[in-house]
Amino acid sequence: MNKVLKLLGGSAFLALVQFLTMPVISRLFSEEALGNYIFFVSLFSVLAIFFTGRLDLHLLQVKNYKSLFFGGVVLSSVIFSIILIATIFFASNVYVYSVLSGWIVSVSSFFYYLSLKKNHLNLVFFSRLGQGGVFFALVFLSYFINISEQLIWIEIFSRLIVLAIFFIYFVKPSSFDYLRDESAINSDLIFTIELLNKYKVFFLTALLGALAIHLNVFLFNFYLSAYFVAMYFFVFKTLSMPVSLVSKPISDTLLSEVNNCKSKGESKNILVLYLKHITIMSVAVYLYVFVNADLLFTTLFGSTWQEIGSVGRLLSLVMMFWAFVTPLSSMLFYCNKQKTGLCITFLDIGIKVLAICLGLLFSDEFITLKAYVLLTSLLYFSTLWRILYYFDVSIFIFIRCFLKCLLLFSVSITSFFYGLEKHHLLLISSLNVVIYFIWFYHVIFYNRFKKLAKMAF
């Protein structure tokens, strides 16, 4: 439990820093600067997956992890050098900075998984702390310092801090002897390339998955306004934070419990239990956002983003379905259904391209967003149905739980469609959330109250 808290604590701090700085960034920088920064972040996130080949994950599994670490870093650096030379001569600065950041993140990722392998969790925690602290400080220094492509440089420096912390801890003077041993480098590279070839489907799935996540930004950046791209980015980052924080711990715990099950019936019961809790939590969070989107997002990011409430309301629906599926997605790998995951990724990419085409056809940015929300929600629902099917769990178990959640949240939904004033709506929906959780978890609340009463008397 202590290990999980250390990993989650660093990630939570980083997420909190991003959450606190986004309102500042939205008010401080122009739409064009924000558009360039958002494109830069999305591009280097995909490039980092490409540079690592997702070999960093295998550091936790292979016995010869030192060879994989050195081979992976060398291979990543060779690919980075080739692409960097090409971008310097043939592309703009944003692409050059993206390639550089992609390499920094990829090498940091190898160090990150090496730290986990060696159980250096404090190092991981302090690297996250350093990244978040530097980013926070540099964003607020932007009030006093103004340079070209400032946001991009802030991101690069915060990423460099992570790499520097890992480098100082792991790299000793004797480590440079490795660079003079040509046979060791060749041996590690051969081992790394063989492993990459062995897990090429896994790498392709991870790369396409990253591309699918960021594809909207790429397409929006080329075909839609910087204003719309910025609104989408702010809302997506805000709404994805709860899922990003809890999905991996839930996914890892679920996978561990299912692996330890002695029978298929036991694993089925565990999956149903997790599904119900995920549904209850996700509906509460994202319907609350749906109802109060105008007030929440304009308060956070400023009244200059006039349509951000509408964007937030639409995206809250698709994020709710994403929250249902993401923590359970590891079950596809448990059932050895990687090809299903690959097909879902291809469909996700196709949906985003189709949504852009519809928006261009009707010359309406919100047509793009509505088509994306509708089709992607259906895709996530189908994915959930498929995961449950592999465990012989009826989709009607989820539907019954989902409808019960909607029923308990119906007061807020009805108040929203009735057109109540924003602050009244916020009060009603907040009370509704309290009653909602007491209804579903009344046993927990009752036991906690009984324990407190015994302590008091």
Plain-language structure description:
The longest helix has 38 residues, at 264-301. α10 (264-301) packs parallel to α15 (395-408). It contains 18 helices and no strands. The model has no long low-confidence stretch (mean pLDDT 84). It folds into two domains: 1-198, no CATH class; 201-408, no CATH class. It is globular, with a radius of gyration of 23 Å. The chain has 457 residues and is mostly helical.
Q: What is the fold's blueprint, element by element?
A:
Layout: H1 2-28, H2 31-52, H3 65-90, H4 93-117, H5 121-141, H6 150-170, H7 182-198, H8 200-223, H9 226-259, H10 264-301, H11 308-325, H12 330-334, H13 338-362, H14 365-390, H15 395-408, H16 410-418, H17 422-440, H18 442-456
Structural class: mainly alpha
Number of domains: 2
Strand fraction? under 5%
Low-confidence stretches: none
Helical proportion? over 70%
Number of strands: 0
Average pLDDT figure: 84
What is the overall number of helices? 18
General form: globular
Cα separation of the termini: 32 Å
In N-to-C order, the SSE pattern is HHHHHHHHHHHHHHHHHH
What is the alpha-carbon Rg in Å? 23 Å
Q: Main β-sheet, in a few words?
A: none
